[in-house]
Design brief:
By secondary structure, the protein is an all-beta fold. The protein has no helices and 34 strands. The chain folds into two domains: 305 residues, 6 Propeller (Neuraminidase); 89 residues, Immunoglobulin-like (Sandwich), CATH 2.60.40.
């Protein structure tokens, strides 16, 4: 199941049934509002059900106190995880607050979750941001939520996460979501955004747009799949300007090797805004895409298949930095949260430390090896008093740029 199901109110139960030899089992109650201590005006949303390749079935859902609202805010929603293994379902385990949760699993059994939540300390407007959590014990316990991307003035939605590589290698996490451009105009175009992590989600590259060159009023229905060769395939619907023009379906792929193709427009002129689309890839590498179209004549379900000619696509890699650089934190002055950004031209050992005017180390924000790229690191100073503070980036790496790089910058906390 991809995306979000219908919304169900009040005493909703979650039921499960499976088919064997063409015969469906009696429905099994997995979860019920009243029997699990939930009270009030509640909405349940089924986010995702998938087999993870480790003899398990993973299931996520939202429980939300709407407080009279038509739809809940992320802070009203609890994200819950259940797992079926050895024909037994686990009890629900909460792993965060938010909406639109999506999972990915690695061959070593780790489960990665990406979702939309509000960081109350991030910005005054409390815009929906992209967050991440990981479980290393098949969903029994989850890490503290980590920020992938601030959304700025425009809310993010429809996140997806994929993991490529083998556990004995450097695995890469890929986060993809939809959001408007951070523009100051009143009607900014939508875009597909991307960030990656090479250190198991401890830090993420600076978000970049994948849908370059596409001017749109809306980007909708982002979904994707990873094939057996560690290539990622995504599709999304674009409603171009002017509003009311026929929508179009676009495809992009990330090849195992680190490059995203340019967007490819599929044979789908006329698709409606309410399009439902999905994609899969078989063992031979054939890509299969189906969608419901409400504008073409006749209306109905459409399907295309084939080997997308990615070899002839003009590739548009995420820009690789050419030098080490530490940027000024933003915002500055800040209260109480800010973001510290830096870039690496190659894989490096990185340490980022915050200290006071007396040179005392207050917090180590990063202390790990990171791949080349741009990184945003959030810093929350709610426990500190107003004043001047410093942050220092120290880097050691191998190769033609070998040698130490270190730089210190000043930031101001104003409460």
């Amino acid at each position: 199941m991809n995306g979000r199901s219908s919304l169900f109110r009040y005493g909703t139960d979650i039921l499960y049934s499976f088919a064997q030899n063409g015969v469906w089992s009696p429905p099994e109650r997995l979860f019920a509002l009243d029997s699990n201590g939930f009270r009030g005006d509640l909405i349940f949303t089924l986010n995702q059900l998938n087999a993870d390749g480790n003899n398990g079935l993973n299931f996520t859902f939202e429980a939300s106190v709407t407080r009279g609202k038509t739809l809940p805010a992320p802070t009203d929603c609890t994200l819950n995880f259940m797992r079926r293994e050895n024909e037994q379902w686990s009890l629900p385990k909460r792993y965060g607050n938010g909406l639109y949760s999506y999972l990915a699993t690695a061959k070593d059994g780790k489960i990665y979750a990406i979702f939309i939540d509000i960081d109350a300390n991030a910005r005054e407007d409390n815009t929906n941001n992209v967050f991440f959590s990981v479980s290393k014990d098949k969903g029994k316990t989850w890490s503290t939520s980590k920020l992938v991307s601030f959304s700025g003035n425009y809310a993010a939605y429809s996140p997806r996460i994929f993991v490529t590589g083998l556990p004995e290698e450097t695995q890469r996490l890929h986060a993809i979501w939809l959001k408007d451009y951070d523009a100051k105009d009143l009607d900014p175009p939508n875009a597909v955004w991307y960030s990656f992590s090479d250190n198991d989600g401890e830090s993420w590259s600076t978000p970049d747009t994948l849908s370059r060159g596409i001017v749109s009023n809306f980007v909708l229905n982002l979904t994707g799949v990873k094939d057996e060769n560690n290539n990622i395939h995504i599709i999304y619907v674009v409603a171009p300007e002017p509003l009311g023009s026929p929508s179009k379906l676009f495809y992009q792929t990330w090849r195992n090797g680190g490059r995203w193709s340019a967007p490819v427009e599929l044979r789908s002129e006329g698709v409606g805004l309410n399009i439902d689309a999905d994609i899969t890839v078989d063992k031979t590498g054939q890509v299969h895409i189906a969608w419901v179209d409400r504008r073409l004549s006749p209306r109905g379900v459409y399907y295309i298949t084939g080997s997308i000619p990615t070899s002839s696509i003009s590739e548009s890699p995420i820009n690789k930095p050419q030098s080490f650089e530490l940027f000024q934190n933003y915002p500055n002055p800040f209260n109480p949260s800010t973001v510290i950004s830096y870039q690496l031209p190659m894989s490096s050992e990185v340490k980022l430390v915050v200290f006071d005017v007396l040179g005392r180390e207050l917090q180590t924000l990063v202390n790990t090896r990171q791949a080349a790229g741009r990184y945003d690191v959030p810093f929350n100073a709610s426990s500190l008093s107003s004043g001047v503070y410093f942050y220092r980036l120290s880097v050691s790496s191998r190769g033609s740029l070998a040698g130490a790089f270190a730089e210190t910058k000043k930031m101001i906390l104003m409460k």
